[in-house]
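Need residues for this backbone.
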């Protein structure tokens, strides 16, 4: 349903679609929305949700498409349906990494029909038969990215952003576990803080201290001020 809404908006609303000079069907498009904002769309595939857009909605909707992508595809079909049909049959001109969204975001690799033996070996080393990365991205991203770039794969911008977010989340999670163990181990004896904390307040201090930003939403009278002072200490 949500994807169908984007497809409809892409075909019915007035978008200003301008292909980059080297673009035939596959390639980059500068797409202006009815609100006059402009975004860069990259069409990599015509048979799946493997394209990208620089708009904020594309990064957050989890659909693998947006109205700007659908507007570019609609423009291509209106301009030359035969060219789109030929491009669909021939498949993507280059192998690439993309961010799949079903059932949850994960990295996948797609081979072009003209993929080299080096590209195929790289895919077999890192991905399963469907192109899904075998390991969590947090465990292998740096080496994996170097390998795929070395043999000519295109790394979609959203893939790099996703990998960076996952790495940052993993770092925060490790920091949280370390801080929580330290604070909870200290119990009510917090350096620079003389009051005695209840167990639930110790847990609250651990929560606050283990995050870069946090909101403590205890009920009134439960000692949020004490927990904040203990955390800062």
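Answer:
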């Amino acid at each position: 349903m949500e994807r169908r809404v984007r497809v409809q908006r892409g075909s019915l609303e007035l978008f200003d679609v301008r292909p980059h000079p080297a673009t035939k069907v596959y390639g980059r498009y500068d797409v202006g929305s009815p609100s006059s904002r402009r975004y860069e769309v990259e069409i990599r595939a015509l048979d799946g949700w493997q394209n990208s857009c620089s708009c904020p909605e594309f990064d957050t909707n989890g659909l693998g498409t947006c109205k700007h992508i659908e507007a570019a595809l609609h423009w291509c079909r209106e301009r030359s349906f035969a060219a789109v049909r030929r491009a669909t049959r021939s498949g993507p001109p280059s192998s690439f990494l993309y961010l799949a969204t079903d059932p949850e975001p994960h990295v996948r690799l797609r081979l072009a029909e003209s993929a080299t033996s080096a590209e195929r070996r790289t895919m077999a080393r890192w991905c399963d038969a469907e192109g899904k990365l075998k390991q969590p991205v947090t465990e292998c991203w740096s080496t994996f990215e170097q390998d795929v770039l070395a043999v000519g794969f295109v790394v979609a911008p959203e893939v790099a952003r996703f990998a960076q977010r996952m790495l940052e989340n993993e770092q925060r999670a490790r920091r949280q576990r370390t801080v929580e163990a330290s604070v909870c181990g200290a119990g009510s004896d917090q350096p620079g803080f003389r009051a005695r904390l209840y167990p639930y307040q110790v847990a609250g201090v651990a929560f606050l201290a283990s995050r870069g930003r946090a909101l403590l939403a205890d009920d009134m009278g439960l000692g949020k001020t004490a927990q904040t002072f203990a955390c800062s200490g």
